[in-house]
Amino acid sequence: MGRRRGGLMSDRLKYELAEELGVADLVRREGWGSVSSRNCGNLVRLAIERAERAMMQGQ
């Protein structure tokens, strides 16, 4: 089975979430690989929360 080429989140959204978590400077300096697993999980949690809020506002 092939891997997905594109991600589900835009780069813009990922950087917005990184700013919110306070890890954007680390990402700019060292790349996404330097972000801890915990913070990656927090990025996903924030993205899910935003998506849920957007769905609720759209209804």
From TrEMBL:
Keywords for this protein: DNA-binding
Domain of life, source organism: Bacteria
GO BP terms, alphabetized: DNA topological change
Annotated coiled-coil segments of the chain: none
GO molecular-function terms, A-Z: double-stranded DNA binding
Residues of the signal peptide: none
Functional description taken from the UniProt entry: SASP are bound to spore DNA. They are double-stranded DNA-binding proteins that cause DNA to change to an a-like conformation. They protect the DNA backbone from chemical and enzymatic cleavage and are thus involved in dormant spore's high resistance to UV light.
Family to which the UniProt record says this protein belongs: Belongs to the alpha/beta-type SASP family.
Name of this chain's protein: Small, acid-soluble spore protein, alpha/beta type
Organism in which the protein naturally occurs: Desulfofundulus kuznetsovii (strain DSM 6115 / VKM B-1805 / 17) (Desulfotomaculum kuznetsovii)
